[in-house]
Protein backbone atom coordinates (compact mmCIF):
# COMPACT_ATOMS: atom_id res chain seq x y z
CA UNK A 1 0.00 0.00 0.00
CA UNK A 2 2.78 2.40 0.96
CA UNK A 3 4.82 1.65 -2.17
CA UNK A 4 1.76 2.12 -4.38
CA UNK A 5 0.98 5.46 -2.73
CA UNK A 6 4.59 6.57 -3.19
CA UNK A 7 4.49 5.69 -6.90
CA UNK A 8 1.25 7.64 -7.24
CA UNK A 9 2.81 10.65 -5.52
CA UNK A 10 5.84 10.49 -7.83
CA UNK A 11 3.61 10.23 -10.90
CA UNK A 12 1.49 13.17 -9.78
CA UNK A 13 4.60 15.23 -9.11
CA UNK A 14 5.94 14.38 -12.57
CA UNK A 15 2.64 15.49 -14.13
CA UNK A 16 2.73 18.69 -12.09
CA UNK A 17 6.21 19.42 -13.42
CA UNK A 18 5.07 18.66 -16.99
CA UNK A 19 1.92 20.78 -16.94
CA UNK A 20 2.61 23.65 -14.55
CA UNK A 21 -0.21 22.65 -12.24
CA UNK A 22 0.53 22.40 -8.53
CA UNK A 23 0.60 18.96 -6.92
CA UNK A 24 -2.68 19.76 -5.17
CA UNK A 25 -4.29 20.72 -8.47
CA UNK A 26 -3.13 17.49 -10.11
CA UNK A 27 -4.62 15.47 -7.25
CA UNK A 28 -7.92 17.34 -7.47
CA UNK A 29 -8.04 16.98 -11.23
CA UNK A 30 -7.41 13.25 -10.81
CA UNK A 31 -10.40 13.05 -8.47
CA UNK A 32 -12.53 14.84 -11.05
CA UNK A 33 -11.28 12.51 -13.78
CA UNK A 34 -12.26 9.51 -11.66
CA UNK A 35 -15.71 11.03 -11.13
CA UNK A 36 -16.15 11.51 -14.88
CA UNK A 37 -14.81 8.06 -15.80
CA UNK A 38 -16.57 6.13 -13.03
CA UNK A 39 -13.15 5.11 -11.70
CA UNK A 40 -12.16 3.67 -15.08
CA UNK A 41 -8.72 4.32 -16.59
CA UNK A 42 -10.07 6.16 -19.65
CA UNK A 43 -12.97 8.37 -20.66
CA UNK A 44 -14.82 8.62 -23.96
CA UNK A 45 -16.44 11.46 -25.88
CA UNK A 46 -19.81 10.28 -24.66
CA UNK A 47 -18.80 10.73 -21.03
CA UNK A 48 -17.59 14.29 -21.62
CA UNK A 49 -20.71 15.00 -23.66
CA UNK A 50 -22.80 14.21 -20.58
CA UNK A 51 -21.10 16.90 -18.42
CA UNK A 52 -23.93 19.32 -17.45
CA UNK A 53 -21.70 22.42 -17.48
CA UNK A 54 -21.01 21.88 -21.19
CA UNK A 55 -24.63 21.21 -22.14
CA UNK A 56 -25.48 24.75 -23.29
CA UNK A 57 -22.10 25.69 -24.69
CA UNK A 58 -22.51 26.51 -28.42
CA UNK A 59 -19.11 25.01 -29.24
CA UNK A 60 -19.45 22.00 -26.95
CA UNK A 61 -18.61 19.64 -29.80
CA UNK A 62 -15.34 21.48 -30.57
CA UNK A 63 -14.37 21.55 -26.88
CA UNK A 64 -14.97 17.82 -26.50
CA UNK A 65 -13.10 16.98 -29.71
CA UNK A 66 -10.17 19.07 -28.48
CA UNK A 67 -9.63 16.59 -25.64
CA UNK A 68 -9.20 13.74 -28.13
CA UNK A 69 -7.01 15.70 -30.56
CA UNK A 70 -3.41 14.48 -30.15
CA UNK A 71 -2.10 17.92 -31.16
CA UNK A 72 -3.32 19.20 -27.79
CA UNK A 73 -1.62 16.53 -25.69
CA UNK A 74 1.96 17.89 -25.82
CA UNK A 75 3.41 14.84 -27.55
CA UNK A 76 4.01 16.24 -31.06
CA UNK A 77 1.55 13.78 -32.55
CA UNK A 78 -1.41 14.21 -34.89
CA UNK A 79 -4.70 12.38 -35.21
CA UNK A 80 -7.40 11.60 -32.71
CA UNK A 81 -7.93 9.17 -29.83
CA UNK A 82 -11.06 7.14 -29.20
CA UNK A 83 -10.53 7.40 -25.45
CA UNK A 84 -8.08 9.29 -23.24
CA UNK A 85 -6.43 8.51 -19.94
CA UNK A 86 -5.73 10.87 -17.06
CA UNK A 87 -2.35 12.03 -18.36
CA UNK A 88 -3.83 13.02 -21.73
CA UNK A 89 -6.77 14.67 -19.98
CA UNK A 90 -4.40 16.66 -17.79
CA UNK A 91 -2.25 17.75 -20.73
CA UNK A 92 -5.30 19.18 -22.48
CA UNK A 93 -6.52 20.81 -19.27
CA UNK A 94 -3.16 22.58 -18.90
CA UNK A 95 -4.21 24.85 -21.80
CA UNK A 96 -6.85 26.32 -19.49
CA UNK A 97 -4.42 26.97 -16.62
CA UNK A 98 -4.45 30.65 -15.63
CA UNK A 99 -1.22 32.47 -14.72
CA UNK A 100 -0.29 33.04 -11.09
CA UNK A 101 1.42 35.93 -9.36
CA UNK A 102 4.70 34.06 -9.77
CA UNK A 103 4.31 33.59 -13.54
CA UNK A 104 7.07 35.45 -15.38
CA UNK A 105 6.57 37.58 -18.48
CA UNK A 106 8.24 34.90 -20.60
CA UNK A 107 6.02 32.19 -19.10
CA UNK A 108 2.91 34.28 -19.73
CA UNK A 109 3.88 34.73 -23.36
CA UNK A 110 4.46 30.98 -23.75
CA UNK A 111 1.13 30.31 -22.03
CA UNK A 112 -0.65 32.73 -24.35
CA UNK A 113 0.87 31.09 -27.41
CA UNK A 114 -0.20 27.65 -26.19
CA UNK A 115 -3.77 28.86 -25.66
CA UNK A 116 -3.82 30.41 -29.14
CA UNK A 117 -2.49 27.20 -30.66
CA UNK A 118 -5.20 25.26 -28.84
CA UNK A 119 -7.89 27.57 -30.22
CA UNK A 120 -6.35 27.40 -33.68
CA UNK A 121 -6.44 23.59 -33.58
CA UNK A 122 -10.12 23.71 -32.66
CA UNK A 123 -10.81 25.63 -35.87
CA UNK A 124 -8.30 23.78 -38.07
CA UNK A 125 -10.36 20.62 -38.06
CA UNK A 126 -8.55 18.89 -40.94
CA UNK A 127 -5.07 19.60 -39.48
CA UNK A 128 -3.66 21.17 -42.64
CA UNK A 129 -2.16 24.20 -40.90
CA UNK A 130 -4.80 26.70 -42.06
CA UNK A 131 -8.31 27.68 -41.06
CA UNK A 132 -10.27 27.68 -44.29
CA UNK A 133 -13.42 29.62 -45.07
CA UNK A 134 -15.45 26.44 -44.66
CA UNK A 135 -13.95 25.66 -41.23
CA UNK A 136 -14.30 29.24 -40.03
CA UNK A 137 -17.84 29.50 -41.37
CA UNK A 138 -18.86 26.30 -39.59
CA UNK A 139 -17.72 27.54 -36.18
CA UNK A 140 -19.23 31.03 -36.61
CA UNK A 141 -22.50 29.57 -37.89
CA UNK A 142 -22.75 27.26 -34.91
CA UNK A 143 -21.99 30.07 -32.48
CA UNK A 144 -24.57 32.39 -34.04
CA UNK A 145 -27.35 30.04 -35.06
CA UNK A 146 -27.42 28.22 -31.72
CA UNK A 147 -27.89 31.50 -29.89
CA UNK A 148 -31.45 31.53 -31.21
CA UNK A 149 -31.22 35.16 -32.27
CA UNK A 150 -30.18 34.64 -35.87
CA UNK A 151 -31.03 32.26 -38.70
CA UNK A 152 -28.71 29.89 -40.53
CA UNK A 153 -28.50 31.98 -43.71
CA UNK A 154 -27.70 35.15 -41.77
CA UNK A 155 -25.06 33.28 -39.77
CA UNK A 156 -23.51 32.03 -43.02
CA UNK A 157 -23.45 35.54 -44.49
CA UNK A 158 -21.79 36.96 -41.35
CA UNK A 159 -19.21 34.17 -41.32
CA UNK A 160 -18.36 34.76 -44.99
CA UNK A 161 -18.05 38.52 -44.48
CA UNK A 162 -15.85 38.05 -41.42
CA UNK A 163 -13.55 35.65 -43.25
CA UNK A 164 -13.19 38.02 -46.20
CA UNK A 165 -12.36 40.84 -43.81
CA UNK A 166 -9.66 38.67 -42.26
CA UNK A 167 -8.35 37.88 -45.74
CA UNK A 168 -8.14 41.53 -46.73
CA UNK A 169 -6.31 42.30 -43.47
CA UNK A 170 -3.76 39.53 -43.85
CA UNK A 171 -3.36 39.83 -47.64
CA UNK A 172 -4.08 43.52 -48.30
CA UNK A 173 -3.09 43.39 -51.98
CA UNK A 174 -5.24 40.37 -52.83
CA UNK A 175 -7.13 40.85 -56.09
CA UNK A 176 -10.90 40.14 -56.19
CA UNK A 177 -10.36 36.99 -58.28
CA UNK A 178 -7.63 35.65 -55.99
CA UNK A 179 -8.39 32.63 -53.82
CA UNK A 180 -7.76 33.01 -50.11
CA UNK A 181 -6.33 29.73 -48.86
CA UNK A 182 -7.03 30.40 -45.21
CA UNK A 183 -5.70 31.70 -41.92
CA UNK A 184 -2.29 30.42 -40.87
CA UNK A 185 -1.31 30.26 -37.20
CA UNK A 186 0.82 33.39 -37.70
CA UNK A 187 -2.23 35.21 -39.10
CA UNK A 188 -4.30 33.89 -36.20
CA UNK A 189 -1.81 35.34 -33.72
CA UNK A 190 -2.01 38.73 -35.43
CA UNK A 191 -5.82 38.70 -35.51
CA UNK A 192 -5.98 38.08 -31.74
CA UNK A 193 -2.95 40.21 -30.87
CA UNK A 194 -4.90 42.67 -28.75
CA UNK A 195 -7.04 40.09 -26.96
CA UNK A 196 -5.99 39.20 -23.42
CA UNK A 197 -6.04 35.40 -23.40
CA UNK A 198 -4.03 34.46 -20.33
CA UNK A 199 -6.89 34.68 -17.80
CA UNK A 200 -9.96 34.48 -20.04
CA UNK A 201 -9.63 30.98 -21.43
CA UNK A 202 -11.15 28.74 -18.76
CA UNK A 203 -13.23 25.61 -18.54
CA UNK A 204 -15.93 25.37 -15.94
CA UNK A 205 -16.80 21.74 -15.27
CA UNK A 206 -13.97 21.13 -12.80
CA UNK A 207 -15.85 21.54 -9.57
CA UNK A 208 -13.26 19.75 -7.48
CA UNK A 209 -13.45 21.78 -4.31
CA UNK A 210 -10.09 23.51 -4.59
CA UNK A 211 -9.38 27.19 -4.10
CA UNK A 212 -6.06 27.06 -5.91
CA UNK A 213 -7.46 26.73 -9.41
CA UNK A 214 -9.68 29.37 -10.99
CA UNK A 215 -12.08 27.82 -13.47
CA UNK A 216 -14.91 29.48 -15.29
CA UNK A 217 -15.53 32.56 -17.37
CA UNK A 218 -13.67 35.68 -16.34
CA UNK A 219 -15.89 38.57 -15.35
CA UNK A 220 -13.27 41.18 -16.10
Provide a descriptive summary of the structure in words:
- The chain is mostly helical and 220 residues long.
- The chain folds into 2 domains: 2-98, Recoverin, domain 1 (Orthogonal Bundle), CATH 1.10.238; 119-191, Recoverin, domain 1 (Orthogonal Bundle).
- The chain is 51% helix and 5% strand.
- It contains 9 helices and 4 strands, in the order ααβααβααβααβα.
- The longest helix has 19 residues, at 105-123.
- It is globular.
- 19% of the residues are buried.
What is this structure's SSE topology?
Layout: H1 2-19, H2 23-37, E1 42-44, H3 45-49, H4 60-67, E2 83-85, H5 86-93, H6 105-123, E3 130-131, H7 133-145, H8 152-170, E4 183-184, H9 185-191
Antiparallel strand pairs: 1-2, 3-4
Helix pairs in contact: 1-2, 4-6, 7-8
Summary keywords:
220 residues; mainly alpha; Recoverin, domain 1; two-stranded antiparallel ribbon; disordered C terminus; metal-binding; lipoprotein
Outline of this structure?
The chain has 220 residues and is mainly alpha-helical. 51% of the residues lie in helices and 5% in strands. It has helices at residues 2-19, 23-37, 45-49, 60-67, 86-93, 105-123, 133-145, 152-170, 185-191; strands at 42-44, 83-85, 130-131, 183-184.
- How can the largest sheet be summarized? 2 strands, antiparallel
What shape does the CA trace take?
Answer: globular
Q: Measured on Cα atoms, how large is the radius of gyration?
A: 19 Å
Oligomer: single chain
Output the CATH homologous superfamily of the largest domain: EF-hand
Name of the level-1 CATH class of the largest domain: Mainly Alpha
Which residues sit in consecutive blocks of at least 5 with pLDDT less than 50? 207-220
Q: Which CATH architecture of the largest domain?
A: Orthogonal Bundle
List the domain count as a whole number: 2
In whole angstroms, how far apart are the ends?
Answer: 46 Å
Number of helices: 9
At CATH level 3, the topology of the largest domain is Recoverin, domain 1
Strand content: under 5%
Strand order across the biggest sheet?
1-2
Fraction of helical residues: 40-55%
Order of helices and strands: HHEHHEHHEHHEH
Q: How would you classify the helix and strand content by structural class?
A: mainly alpha
Average of the residue pLDDT scores: 77
